[in-house]
Amino acid sequence: MRGRVPEHFLERGAYRRRRIEEAARMVPVVFALLTLLPMLWRPAQMSFSFGAVWLVSVWAITILISAILFRMLGRSQPDPPSADTSLATEPADDA
Amino acid sequence: MTPEILGAIAIAYVAFMFVLAHAADRASIAGRWRWMDSPVVYTLSLSVYCSAWTFYGAVGYASRSGLEFITIYLGPSIVFAGAWWGLRRLVRVARMHRITSVADLISSRYGKSPWIAVLVTLIAVTAATPYLALQMQSVTMALGAFAEPGQKLPGAIPLWVAIGLAAFAILFGTRNLAADERHHGVVIAIALEAVVKLAAFIAVGCYVVWGLADGPADVLARIDRFSTTEAAKGWIIQPERWAVLIVLAGSAVVVLPRMFQVLIVEAGDDDRLRHAGWAFPVYLLALSIFVLPITVIGRDLLPAQSDPDLHVLNLPLSQGKDGLATLVFLGGFSSAMSMVVVSAIAVSTMVANHWFVPFWLWLREIPITRRPHDAPRRDDLRSLMLNARRLGIIGVVGSGWLYHQMSGGASALAAMGIVAFSGMAQVVPSLLAGMLWRGATRRGALAGISAGAMIWFVMVFLPSLGLLGQPQLWAGIDPFAGSVAIALFVNVSLLIVISLFDFPPPAERLQSFSFVNGVAPDAAPADPAQSATAEALLALASRIWGTETALRQFRDAAEEQGKSGFLPDLTSRFVSQFERALAGTVGAATASALTSRVLGRGAVTVADLMDVAGETQRTKETNERLELASHELARTARKLQESNDKLTAISSQKDAFLGQISHELRTPMTSIHAFSEILKEPDLPGSERERFAGIIHDEAGRLTRLLDNLLDLSVLEGGQARRHAEVVNLHDLIERAVTLAEISAPGRPAQIERDPLAEHLPVITDPDRLLQVLINVLANARKYCDAPQPIIEISTRRHPDGRTEIDVTDNGSGIAADRQTLIFEKFARLNEASRIPGAGLGLAICQEMMGFLGGTIAYIPGQGGACFRLILPHLPPTAHHPQ
Amino acid sequence: MKPGIDVLLIEDEPSIAEAIRFILSREGWRCAQWSEGSEAIQQILGLRPRLVILDVMLPGRDGLQVLAQLRATPEIASTPVLVLTAQGGPLAAEGASMVLAKPFANEDLRQAVRSLMPAGQPRA
Which fold has domain C7-116? Predict the structure, then answer.
C-alpha cells in the first residue's frame, strides 16, 4: 500500500526506515531456512548435541536482531492514526 | 509432602487466582492498574501456548524423539520474528472488524458466512476436547507422583479440577458483554501463571544442570555419550516430520482457539507485537533450553521404567527436594489451568456465537426492534448471549472431562497436542489466502476446510485415539507427517481451484477487499429503508449491551458527527461501524443478520461495490490532512445545520409564543368574563348562580396556575430563585409525586412499576423543586402515553461518582426523533391534534428546574416508549446562578 | 337530532361553551354544541343550523380548516359563520361572516348572533 504513493525519492529518515522494514521482513525467512535446511540436509549429524547448540545459537541471535530492529522501527513510527474511532476503539466495560 | 497437602496448596493457589482476577476486573472498570495493558502482560499471557503438554510433555517428547520437541517452539518463534509485518496485519484487520474468534475471522472474511463459522467451530471443539482431557490428566498424574507406592488417589480429582476451572472461566470470562471481548481478570491471572511456570521450569532446570550435572559442558558430553547407544536411533531427526511440525506449530500459535484469544482478541492494539515479537520467543527459548538436559539427566539417574513425562517432577522428588517439587507441581498446575480456562472461554465464545445464538434467533423470530411489553428486562438478548457462553463453557470443559473418563486417562492422550495442532491447521490456508488474495472465495474456503478436516479426522484424529489403524503410506514416510501433508495439500488445492472458477457475491467481495487491503469498509452497504431509524438500532444495541453501554456508544457516535443527543444520522459509515461493534459481541454473521433485520435493507449490490471502489480511490488521492480538515468541516457544518434548524424552529415558536400565551390567558378569561356578566342578571335561580360562581372560581384558579408557571420560568431563567437544600429520601419524594400526579392529571389509570428497594437513596437537593419536576414528568407520561394499557416504570440508581439517576419510562410509542430536540422548549406541545389543556410549559419548567438544581433532564430514545432521565448531582450548586 | 337548530356552537372549552349556550338560550335561540374539529362538517350537514359559531383552536382539526371546507361544501356553503378567536391581533379568517375576539362582552355576542341570523328572529 505504502509503495503506491507517488514519491520516488525519500528524505533520509524515511529512507532508513524503509530499509529497516525490509530487514525486519527478512529475519523470519532467514531464521526458518537456518532451522530447516541443516536438519533436512544432514539429519544424523544435527540430531544431538551439535544440533542443539546450533538451534539455540541461531534462535538467540534471531531474537537479538529482531529486538533491535523492532526497537528501531518503533522509534520512528509514522503510522497514520486509525480512521476508526468512537464505536470501534472505545473499550466499553460495563459494571 | 503428600497429595493431600498438595491438593490443599492447589486449592489455595486457585483461590488466590480468583481474588487476583476479581481485583483486576474491578481495577480495569475503575480505570486503575493501567500497567495491565502493557506489552509485558500481553507477552506473558501468550505463554498460554505452553500448556501442561509442554510443561511435563516436552521432556517426555524429547525422551522419545530427541530434538524434535523443539519444533513446537521454533515454529511460533519464526512466526513471531515476522510479527511486525505478518501478525500485525492480522491483529489490525481483526480489530478493525471486531473479530471474536478464529471462526469469526474466517466467516467474516468470506462474506460473513454463518456456515463457515459453524464448520470451524466444529473443528475447534473436536480438536480441543482431547486436549482439555490431557490437561486434567496431567494434574492427576502429577499428584500421583507424590503418592506413596500403592496409595490410591480419589477418582474424582479430574472432576473437581474441571468444576473449579469451569467456574473460573464462567466467573471471569462471561462477566459482561462488552463491545470488545477483553477479559482483564483472566489475562492478569494467566500472566502471573506464566511467571510461575517459567520460574518453576527454570528452577528445576538450573538444579538439574548445576546441581545434578556439572554444568552445560557435562550435559552436552552426556548427550554425545548417549548418541552412540542403540536407544539413540529414535532421536534421529526425520526431515519430513521436522518440516511439517514447524509448519503446524507456527500455524497453531495463531489459530488455536486459546492463542487466537490472547494474541488477537485480547490485544489492546497492534503496537505491542513489536515487543512480544522478540519477548515471546525469549520465553519459549528459556523454557526449551532446559528440556534436553532434564531428559538426559533423568535418563541417567531415574529407573528405566520411570515415566519420562514426569521426569520434571521425579528428578527433584528422587533427590528429596520436596520444596522444588512443590514449585514444579504448581508450575504444571498453572499450565493446565490457564490452558483450560482460556480454551474454555475461546471455544465457548465460538460455540455460543456460531452455534447457539444463531440457532436460537432462527428458532424464535424475536422481534428485535421493540421490546415486547411483557419482557421485563431491557437487556434480554444480552443475558441470552451470556447464558449461551456459560452453557458453552460447561459443555466444553464437561466434554473434556467426559473424554478423560471414557479414555481412562490412557497414554493415547500424549499425542493429543500435535493432533489438535494439525486439526486447527486446516483453517490456515483459508486464513492466509483470505488475508493475501482477494480472489479466495467462500465456496473455495468451505470446500478446502471441510475436505482437509475430513482427511485429518480419518487419518490423524481417529488413529490417535486408537479407533483406526495408522494409515500406511509410502515406505519410509512418517504416517503423521504424510497424512497432514495430504490433508493440507487437498485443502489448498480445493481452495485455489474452486476460488478460481467462482464468482463471489458483492457482500463477500466487499469483505475480501477490506481484509486484503486493510481498509475499513465504511462506505458500505445500501441505503437503509426509509422507515429505519437510529432509534431502532439503539433499541437493538440496548438489548445486547445493556442500556448504559449502548447509550454511551451512540452518544459518542453522534458527537463524532457533530450532533447532540443519542441518535446519530444513519450514514453508511455509522451503520458499518455499528455492525462491526455488534460483531465484536455476537460475531460477524449474526451481527450482519441482526442489523439487516432492523434496517430492513437488502444485500449489498454491485452498484454499492462500485461506490466503495470510487470512494476508496478518492480517499487515496486526497491528502490526509485535507481529509481531516474536511471531516472537521463536515462536522462543523452538521453542527451548524443542527443549531440553525433549532433556531428556526425556536424562532417560529417564539412567534407562536405570544399567540399561545394570549390563547392560554384569554380562554379562562373568556369564561370568567361571560359568567360574571351573567351573574349580574337579576332573575337567576340560586343553584345556577352558585354553579356559575364555581366555574368562575375554577377558571380563575387555572389562570393563577398559568401565571405561576410563567413566573417560575422567568424566575428560574433569570437566576433569581432561592435554593434551599436538604437531605431527603428519594423514595418518599417519588411516593408523593406519584400520588400528586394522579390527582393533578386524572384520566386513564396507568400502572406504575417501581423498585422500592432501589429508591431508598438519600439525596441532597431542593425537595420542592425536585417534587415539581417529578410530578410534571409523571403527569406528562400519564397524558401522552398512548398504549392500550399504560405502564409507567420508575427506576433509580446511584452512580459511583455520586450522581443520582431517575428514569421515567412509559410503554407508549415514544417521541419521534425530529421532535426530540424541541420538547423542552416552551409551548412545544407535541401533538397539536390531541391538545390537552395546560400542557406546553411543563417540560420547559422541568428543564429550568433541573438546571437550577445542578442536574439535567434528557429524553432517552430507544427504550420502547418515552423515557425521561433526570440526573441529580451529588451536591446542588452553591452559587445563586443556575448553570 | 331534532331539526330546526338555530345555532351550532363548535367549541372545545366546556365552560366557554356553557356560557355561550346559556346566553343564547335566554335569547330564545335553540343551541347545539360540538367540541372537536374533525367531524364538525358532518355535524353541520346533519343538523343544518342557521348559524355556526366556530372556535379557531380545536382539537382534531383547526377551526379555519373547518370553515374552508364548509364554504366548499355546496349544501351548507351559505351558512353564516361567527368565528371566535383567543389569539391576540387581527385574524385573517377567509370566509368568516364575523370575527369575535375572546373575551367578549355578552351583549356583543347577542348582537352578533342577531345580526347574522338569516331570518333575524328566534323561531320560538
Answer: Rossmann fold (3.40.50)
